[in-house]
Amino acid sequence: MLKNYLKIALRSMARQKLFSFVNIAGLSLAMSVSLLLITIIYNQYNYDRFHAGADRIYRIESFNPNAPRIFAGTASSPLPFKKAMVDQYAYFETYTNMRFDLGREVQTDEKILDLKSLLVDDEFFDVFSFPMIEGNKETALNEPFSVVLTTETAEKFFGEKDTYLGLILDYTGVGPFKITGVLDMEGIKTHMKFDALASMSTLNSMSEGGPFEDKKNDNWQNLWVGYNYFKLNPGVDPNQVAATVASLAEENIEWAEDRQPYTFGVAPVTKIAMGNMYGNELGFYIPSIVLAFFGFLALVVMVTALFNYTNLSLAKSLTRAREIGIRKVSGATRRQVIHQFVIESVIMAMLSLILSVGILKVMIPAFNGLEIFTLAELSVDFSYGAFPYFIAFSILVGLFAGVFPALFLSKFSPIQALKGYHGVSGGAGKRGFMSNFSFKKVLMIVQFGLSIFMIISILVMREQTSLMVNSEYGFDEENLLVVELQGSKPEIVAAELSKNPAVTAYTFSSHNPAIGRSHGADFQRDMEGERFGLNHFSVDDNYISTFGITLLAGRDYAPGDGEGTEKFIILNETAVKTVGFETPHEAIGQEIILDKENRVQIIGVVKDYHFEPLMKSIEPMALRFMPDSYENINLKISSANVPSVISDLQEAWKSIDSKRDLKYSFLDQEMDHFYFFLGDITAIVTAVSLFAIFISCLGLLGMVSFQLQTKVKEIGIKKVLGATTQYLIMSLTRQFSMVIVISVVVFVPIAVLVSDLWLNLMATRVSIGFGVIAMALLIVGCLGLVTIVSQVIKAATANPMNALRNE
Question: How far is CA 528 from CA 116, 279, 597, in A?
Answer without folding.
Answer: 43, 33, 12
